[in-house]
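Subject: for your reference before the review

Hello V.,

The reviewers asked for a structural picture of the protein, and I figured it would be easier to keep everything in one thread rather than splitting it across files. Below is the amino acid sequence we used in the manuscript, unchanged from the supplementary table.
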Amino acid sequence: MEAGILGTVDGQFDELESSQSTITQDDTELQRCIEVRRSLSLPNGVVAYEGRAAMERLNEQEEVQIDEGEITVYERPQRVTSYTPFLVVPGEAIIVGNSSV
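And here is what came back from the structure prediction:
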């Protein structure tokens, strides 16, 4: 069984829209994205939003090279993208799935 997270919303918003932004880390541009896939009208009149959130991050990757009888080991930053599905009820709660790389 995979785990997710259930949290309460701290803040107020009535609507959630798809968006994308860029941050810079160690001179590398990394993307962040919220993709709203559909809205759901709940019986109490509140609209919930279902979608996906993704973010890129830098992860140090160990690399090994063999050159003329010498072994060189070094770490190099590698861009990794994680995403998770979500369901949010504005002003109430957010449920996110287990992130995936």
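For the response letter, the relevant points are probably these. The longest strand covers residues 47-67. The mean pLDDT is 89.

Happy to draft the paragraph if you're swamped.

O.
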